[in-house]
Amino acid sequence: MPIPKRYSSINFVPPPIVSDYATEGLRLRRKFKRGGTSIGIARARDLKNRKRLSPKTIKRMVSFFARHEVDKRGKNFGNPDKPSNGFIAWMLWGGDPAKKWAKSILMEIKQCDLQFPSSK
Length: 120
Prior knowledge:
This protein has helices at about 15-30, 40-50, 55-70, 85-90, 95-115. By secondary structure, it is mainly α. It has one domain (about 15-115). Helix 3 packs across helix 5. The longest helix has 21 residues, at about 95-115.
């Protein structure tokens, strides 16, 4: 699905740090054989490969991080030697760098929507 022209000024390609975190998430999932869903694995592959994402995917990422922020309080969140399932899933989605990046892209999307309301 092509990205609407009103978003032509937005770079929907994940930055290298997001790719690195997703790559680590895939490594953890392979090693521990748990954590994440098929959607999370697909997202990690797209992020790892720095595939240009859609505005809809950016919105899904922001929603994922909002829903799963609570996972950070779980036992072994952030422990790469004994990671929680929540930590593995968080990493699959690109971790904290992806949360920050997706939020900034969503802000750009919203600004474009305000600037070009009739072209939705």
